[in-house]
Inverse folding.
């Protein structure tokens, strides 16, 4: 794709970072795509619940010469020489992560969230062992044992879910009954499409009864836990916490595994390397350290709480206008709208019409959905990215109104065009860190 001179001029007017001079000269195709993506991020509203904007410092760190270094092993115990600076950054990442989440051990090397979960399973299980995780149709994640993943060829996955989809309350009695019957080795919390909080203390009690290790995959909610806006599973005695670092935690793309004790941490370290991965991606480890440093600052607490205030406000706005939300609200950063019940159209159609006005979210299955995964009944949206841009409750009402208007006017080309312009003007008032 080649983007012409007029777009480059428009971008320079937008004051986008014009500093990619080597790339621009050497590879205009990639450079132009990058400029297009920057523009998309500045001019549009990002409501995908798993996305965020990283800070200029994190962004800079990701593009550094730490990329050039092989560092198999761990600080002080590497397979290659020349590790005096990689050891500094990895140790800082580990120490900051431990402080942030109040645990004894951190492995900051997983390349992403799924590899972190795979390394965690192999650290704790033998082939054929059972894991009990959240029902995938109630919000659980693919890496918690979806039949399309290789994990199900090796381990057995059993489920718990909501007792009542109107409140989102988990059925802890049923969880206990299944646990007593199936004797899982891991009781796994975590989700990518569940708008409520888990009761870690209840889960821990059930796990203790059957001798299971408690693991929480906090990928979606790590930022709010770090900022004290949601409960920390370690405070209720959880053993292991896995996460991505690039969602609400606002770091580079990557994963991490935290352990309550140093002893569990030893098993995790062996499983990550050499069990599963090779060399760590050291520029990402360094960027994780920078992001954790940011998350330790008092401002991050405000950010974490504002994400939830925004999410609750937007959810209430939609419900007051008659929309049907899964569990009738939210306690975290995301919400799920039942589009078929609310608007008489499927989630994919809502996703498409919003794309046309510069608002990005994703279609999603809702609990007990009768439709197919590629054509589900709902959409999922979240507030982490727009909160990073500085939007607050007032802006949630503007955004909610944009969304409802786009759906209402979906057959009216001219109205959608005008709305797209309005969205663009609105967005430019809220700078994207590292771009505008
Ligand atoms: C709960 C949960 N775990 C794991 C992952 C996987 O993370 P990654 O895409 O970095 O592999 C996700 C990503 O959406 C997630 O939501």
């Amino acid at each position: 794709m080649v983007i012409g001179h007029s777009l480059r001029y428009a971008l320079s007017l937008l004051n986008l970072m014009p500093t990619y001079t080597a790339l621009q000269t050497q590879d205009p195709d990639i450079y132009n795509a990058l400029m297009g993506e920057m523009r998309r991020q500045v001019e549009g509203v990002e409501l995908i619940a798993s996305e965020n904007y990283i800070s200029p410092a994190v962004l800079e760190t990701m593009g550094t010469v730490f990329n050039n270094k092989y560092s198999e092993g761990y600080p002080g115990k590497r397979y290659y020489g020349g590790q005096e600076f990689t050891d500094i950054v990895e140790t800082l990442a580990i120490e900051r992560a431990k402080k942030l989440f109040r645990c004894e051990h951190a492995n900051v090397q997983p390349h992403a969230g799924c590899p972190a979960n795979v390394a965690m399973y192999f650290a704790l299980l033998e082939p054929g062992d059972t894991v009990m995780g959240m029902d995938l149709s109630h919000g659980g994640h693919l890496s918690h044992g979806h039949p399309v993943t290789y994990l199900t060829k090796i381990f057995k996955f059993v489920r718990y879910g909501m007792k009542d989809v109107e409140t989102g309350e988990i059925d802890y009695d049923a969880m206990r009954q299944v646990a007593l019957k199936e004797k899982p080795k891991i009781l796994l919390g975590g989700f990518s499409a569940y708008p409520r909080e888990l009761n870690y203390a209840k889960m821990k009690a059930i796990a203790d009864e059957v001798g299971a290790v408690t693991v929480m995959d906090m990928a979606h909610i790590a930022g709010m836990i770090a900022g004290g806006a949601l409960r920390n599973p370690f405070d209720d005695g959880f053993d292991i916490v896995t996460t991505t670092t690039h969602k609400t935690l606002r770091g580079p793309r990557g994963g991490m595994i935290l352990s309550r004790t140093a002893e569990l941490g030893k098993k995790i370290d062996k499983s990550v390397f050499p069990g599963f991965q090779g060399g760590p991606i050291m520029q990402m480890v360094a960027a994780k350290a920078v992001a954790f440093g940011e998350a330790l600052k008092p401002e991050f607490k405000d950010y974490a709480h504002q994400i939830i205030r925004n999410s609750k406000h937007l959810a209430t706005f939609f419900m007051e206008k008659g929309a049907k939300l899964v569990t009738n609200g939210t306690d975290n950063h995301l919400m799920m709208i039942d589009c078929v019940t609310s608007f008489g159209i499927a989630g994919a159609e809502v996703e498409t019409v919003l794309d046309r006005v510069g608002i990005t979210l994703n279609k999603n299955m809702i609990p007990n959905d009768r439709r197919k995964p590629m054509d589900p009944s709902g959409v999922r949206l979240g507030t982490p990215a727009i909160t990073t841009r500085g939007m607050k409750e007032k802006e949630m009402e503007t955004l909610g109104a944009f969304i409802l208007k786009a759906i209402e006017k979906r057959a009216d080309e001219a109205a959608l065009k005008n709305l797209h312009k309005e969205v663009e003007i609105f967005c430019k008032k809220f700078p994207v860190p590292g771009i505008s």
Observations:
- The longest helix spans residues 298-320.
- Residues 61-295 form a domain with the Aspartate Aminotransferase; domain 2 fold (CATH 3.40.640.10).
